[in-house]
Structures are given as structure tokens and as C-alpha cells.
Amino acid sequence: MLPPVDPATLQRNPNFEILYKDLCTRKSNPDGSTRDTKKQRMHDEIRRSLTTTRSTLLSTQILISTLITLPSRAPTLPDELHACIALVSALLSGQIADPSDREILSGDITIFLDNIDIIASTISSQLETVTTHLCTIAAPLSPPAPTLLSTTAENLVNAATVELPRELATARTELSNSLTSLLALHKQTLETSIRILEQTQHGSLARHTKARAELLHSRATLLGLEAKCHTFGHPPPAEFVLALKEFRKSQSTGERSLRDREALARQSLRLYEQAGEKGIRELAKRKGYLENEMGRIEREIESLERGR
Fold first, then answer.
1. Are 27 and 34 spatial neighbours (Cβ–Cβ below 8 Å)?
2. Which of 6, 15, 150, 220 has the fewest CB atoms within 10 Å, measured from its CB?
């Protein structure tokens, strides 16, 4: 077959597409050889003769092999025919080549020919059994009829030697074209991605973003300078400065009180750590005792007040 061509090439060159299809369909065979009708007819005739000869040879071999194994596979065959069948099988298979031996076996051959109907019927039964097995092998799920076995075999051979290779070649060509299209699309995707990256990193979009950022930075710097100039040229009012000082003093006072509380808390924590678990429990007992005493004294005071 001719090598596959990129579909884009065929679309860009319609005349070449017509020539390519003509070469693929009319000028060449599916296997890539040049098509010659006369030679192909001669080859077909030779092929048919060869097929007929092979069929005759195989039929003869099948009959001889069936005849050789017939005595062991046909229990209904009379015993007196076993010997003559074995001798005739040896004669047909070429094991007896001496003409004088053939003359000696003429009596057995006569017996074989006289009982040819029984032998032929037995051979037919054996061949029918083999044919049934072949039908099952050809299609296990739905065996064909024995009369269709030859057609089924031809279809299987044709599918294995002609149709499947042709479908495989067609699928390979389609796969090559699909792969070419995929690579072209991948290339286009990469080019587009690179172009977008270039526009983002070094293109007009990146320059616009950078210029805008520089403009905003310049504006912020200008506003900072204007604020400093306004601060230097317009000092804050005395009330505002006094309020800031008072706020700072209050912040300092609050900070000192927080530091004192932190120091007291740390000292208490250190004392607790030194006292240990036993000391903490003793303090808890004392606290409970003091709370009870305070409650008792408060109740006595209330009773004295009510008695007054």
C-alpha cells in the first residue's frame, strides 16, 4: 500500500488528492503491488488449479488415514474385514511396493471390494462425527450445519488472511493521520501558550501593568512629600500637642501599672512554685476556714442587729 499522506496536504492540493485516490484504488493492489489484470487472471487460474489439486490430495489423505484407524474406531465393523482393511490401507499408503506382494494380496483386495458398501458407510459415519467436531470448533456458541462448514472455513481464512490485514492497515493509516493532527494541534497549543507568556512577561500587557505600578508609586511618593511639606509649614495647634502629651502620659501610667501587676503576678507565681502542692492545699484550707468564720461573724452581727 502507498504511504499515508497528511489530510491537510490533500486538502491544499485537490488534484494530488484525486491522483492519490486513483493510485490507491485502481493502479495498485491493497498489498502495494502494481495491479495487472491479465497477470492477475493467470494467477487466479493457477491458484484455482492449485486449490483443486490440494483439495484432492487432502481428501485422499483423509480417506486413507480414516481407513487406517477404522478398525479401532468402528466397533460395529465385522472382524473378518479388519485384516483386509489393514492390508489395503498399507497398499494405498505405499508401504507395499513390491508388485509380487500385491498379486498375493489380490484375494484380500477382492474381499475389500465386495464389502465396499459396509466400509464406505462406516467411513461416512466416522467422517460425519469428525465434521460435527469441526463445526463445534469453528463456532462453539452456534455451530454451523455440516453443509455450511466449507463456507465457514473459507470465511475464516478470508477474514484471517485478507480482511483483518486490510482493516489493520486502514486503522494504522487512520491512526497515523490522527497522530499527525494531534501533534499539529499540540504544536499550535504550545505556540499560543508561548505567545501568551511573552505578552504577559514582556508584551504590551506587562509594560502597561509596570507603567501603572510606577505611576501609582510616583503618586504615593508625591503625596508623602506633600504631607511632610504641609506638616513643616503648618505646625499643629497647641491644644492638639497638649492632648497628645496627656495621652502619652496616660499611656505611660497605664504601662507602668501593667508592669507592676505583671511583677506582682510573677512574684505570686514564684511563691506558689516555692510552696509546692502541699502549701497550695494548706492555703486552700485556710481560705475555706476564713470564709466560714467570716460567714459566721456576719450571721452573728445580723442577729444582734435584729435583736436591737
1. yes
2. 15
Range of the domain at 278: 253-308
The secondary structure of 55-118 as a DSSP string is: HHHHHHHHHHHHHHHHHHH-TTS-THHHHHHHHHHHHHTT----HHHHHHTHHHHHHHHHTHHH
pLDDT tens readout for residues 213-252 = 888 989 888 888 888 887 777 776 777 777 777 777 777 7
- Listed residue (35, 9, 14, 39) closest to 24, CA to CA: 35
Question: Looking at the domain assignment, is residue 142 inside a domain?
Answer: yes
Residues 6+ apart with CB under 8 A from 279: 272
Q: For the full predicted model, state whether its pTM sits above 0.70.
A: no
CB atoms within 10 A of CB 146: 13
| Contact indicator for 98, 64 with CB cutoff of 8 Å | no
